């Protein structure tokens, strides 16, 4: 095997993907500007290319790597990912998520790299009445974040068609949990870390609306353990090495869990969680639950871990 170039590999999800790739026998080089990634998540023997996707030196950095190592392909995770922040700062999201993806595609093409695994999101579906959500559901994102992830998919697909590259896009549903303490999600926007912080500090976690059209009135999401998600990347990388193009695939558990159910699971693992009901958040759909049957069929991947595993 050669080497995978992993963008965003010092991030929460990226560091799990890095570990899973290496455990499966792949080599990997991380490209990360460390704006949100943490170098302490990286093993000491992993090469880190500290570079922004928007840097004028990106082509040179990728080309230099390809000149001295056989690069199998790109696993592209680097992106901005907060829905509320994207509503407040849409141009930043278009610049980094769309512009950064285009820049990475150009750099890969210039270096002769012809396999591309793209990190997408269930946010591409927006507010859909479909349950579960299949990959054939209309993509009508309701936030700038979702729009940029969909535009990135379009760019990857059209580029691959034009140059004869192989590609896939993994549409993550809600990622949670950790495979090791040092890899934990330290972000301030994902639900599970916020709920766990509330349990530790006694500061109430905000529940954005209790009047949604769901069984308990709070938003339903499909939560997938980050270790399972990382294994989905390994399965996708194997398909790309066979020069297959699986296209866009959902990555989830095909099971909805409400905000209050997540809080209850944290309480089982960690103790009481104070909460505060506040106004709905703009850009949030009421429910998004995956149909993950296609990835099982195409890549042989299925999630193994549940919400209690994530909370523990």
TrEMBL record:
Gene3D superfamilies: NAD(P)-binding Rossmann-like Domain, UDP-galactose 4-epimerase, domain 1. Belongs to the NAD(P)-dependent epimerase/dehydratase family. It comes from the Bacteria. Its EC number is 5.1.3.2. Residues 4-252 form the NAD-dependent epimerase/dehydratase domain. The keyword Phosphoprotein does not apply. It holds the Pfam family Epimerase. Pathway: Carbohydrate metabolism; galactose metabolism. Its cofactor is NAD(+). One of its GO terms (molecular function) is UDP-glucose 4-epimerase activity. Keywords: Carbohydrate metabolism, Isomerase, NAD. Coiled coil: none annotated. The lineage of its organism: Bacteria, Bacillati, Actinomycetota, Actinomycetes, Pseudonocardiales. It catalyses: UDP-alpha-D-glucose = UDP-alpha-D-galactose. The gene is galE. This is UDP-glucose 4-epimerase. SUPFAM superfamilies: NAD(P)-binding Rossmann-fold domains (SSF51735). InterPro entries: Epimerase_deHydtase, NAD(P)-bd_dom_sf, UDP_G4E. The keyword Cell inner membrane does not apply.
């Amino acid at each position: 095997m050669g080497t995978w170039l992993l963008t965003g590999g010092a991030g929460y999800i990226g560091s799990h993907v890095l570990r899973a790739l290496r455990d499966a026998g792949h080599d990997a080089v991380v490209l990360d500007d460390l704006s949100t990634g943490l170098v302490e998540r990286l093993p000491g023997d992993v090469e880190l290319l500290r570079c922004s996707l928007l840097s004028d030196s990106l082509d040179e950095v990728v080309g230099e790597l390809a000149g001295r190592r056989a690069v199998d392909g790109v696993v592209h995770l680097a992106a901005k990912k907060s829905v509320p922040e994207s509503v407040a700062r849409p141009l930043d999201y278009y610049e980094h998520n769309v512009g950064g993806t285009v820049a990475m595609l150009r750099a890969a093409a210039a270096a002769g790299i012809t396999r591309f695994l793209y990190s997408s999101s269930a946010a591409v579906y927006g507010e859909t009445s479909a349950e579960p959500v299949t990959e054939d559901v209309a993509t009508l994102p309701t936030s700038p974040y979702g729009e940029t992830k969909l535009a990135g998919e379009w760019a990857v697909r059209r580029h691959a068609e034009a140059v004869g590259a192989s590609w896939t896009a993994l549409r993550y549903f809600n990622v949670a949990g950790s495979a090791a303490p040092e890899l934990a999600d330290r972000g301030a926007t994902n639900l599970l870390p916020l709920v766990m912080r509330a349990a530790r500090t006694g500061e109430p976690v905000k529940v954005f609306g209790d009047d949604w059209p769901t069984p308990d009135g709070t938003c339903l999401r499909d939560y997938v353990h980050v270790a399972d998600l990382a294994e989905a990347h390994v399965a996708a990388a194997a398909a790309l090495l066979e020069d297959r193009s699986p296209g866009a695939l959902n990555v989830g558990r095909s099971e909805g869990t409400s905000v209050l159910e997540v809080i209850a699971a944290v309480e089982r693992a960690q103790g009481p969680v104070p909460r505060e009901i506040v106004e709905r958040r703009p850009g949030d759909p009421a429910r998004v639950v995956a149909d993950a049957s296609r990835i099982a069929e195409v890549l042989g991947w299925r999630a193994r871990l549940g919400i209690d595993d994530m909370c523990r």
